[in-house]
Amino acid sequence: MSTHELFTLPPQESSWSVPSSFDTLFNWEYDAMRDRLLSLYSKGKQKQWDSDSRVDWSLDVDPENPAQIPDEYNLGIYGTDIYDRMTDGEKANARLHAEAWRVSQFMHGEQGALICASKIVQSVPDIDSKFYAATQVMDEARHVEVFSRYLHEKVKVVYPINPQLKELLRQVIEDSRWDFTYLGMQVLIEGLALAAFSLFRDRAVHPLAASINAYVMQDEARHVAFGRLALRDYCPQLSDAERDEREEFVVESCYLMRDRFTAAEMWENLGLPVAESISAQANSERMRLYRRSLFTRIVPIVKDIGLWGPRVQKAYADMGVLDLADMDPDAATQVDEDIADSFDARRAQVDATIAAGSA
Known about the structure:
With 359 residues, this protein is an all-alpha fold. It has one domain (3-10, 42-354): Ferritin, core subunit, four-helix bundle (Ferritin, Up-down Bundle), CATH 1.20.1260.10. It has helices at residues 35-46, 51-54, 71-74, 81-85, 88-123, 127-155, 163-174, 178-203, 207-234, 240-259, 264-269, 274-282, 285-293, 298-305, 310-319, 329-358. α5 runs antiparallel to α6 (127-155) and α7 runs antiparallel to α8 (178-203). The chain starts with 34 loop residues before the first helix and ends with a helix.
């Protein structure tokens, strides 16, 4: 079935053309490998996976709540007058559309990451970064495939790209500087995605949705580590003016990402009062905690790479996330690795039990 048949709202265009101009750089020094990036490259090769065999697509889902996420974590209007006025049928429809909207944005963001990773291969000057980015291109293609298959086969509803995400992708893709691509995609967009994936990985009751998020996160944790390593080496070389420009981009992007979760188009499509729904969601304590948690991966990395001037700190204080700067990104990455491995172990145990029973 064509995706256009599943869109809840007609997209403004069938495809999106973003003009960009950057130099494609060749590097004839093939031995200048940094050990840390070479290690990531090796892991990127070893951790490639096939979604046809790793994901159990045979699992059925509830069409009214595919991921089986409790309403208090799934619906931003939970506990409000709007939610209380809804019928059981309206709540079931809202659960489906919340899952569709969320995973649609994941899918669109992963296509943006696919394009940015291919851009990094062309534009980054050092050969070790080109090697690693090449593994990321394959990762991102697989992520688009996985989310697309989940939406087409299980959810059967798709939303167009959210305006705030579209604007951030436009800025990242149009800029010709390779370090802006790293900063926008590897640190900001992927960092936010990691936090969002983790929330739904940990809240989803259905094993299909939980495992998809876990497997994608295992890849994304490497991608964020790649951007962090590269920019930690590069940012100290920036002039004050260059650093100010990048810090301004960090601030603007973080506000864009925070505001992207209003989901105005979803509330409108559900026939709910848009302004009231957005306001109720914004004033919800759960949504405040959710938005804060989205920056758990971004804030410590922005500090670590050296973009930590007064403008950035003031913005993070305004968002209520400044204290997240002291979190350990490496520890979070290890947790992501371990959880993905645990899903594999459980799947292997189930397969072994089934095989033993049929013997």
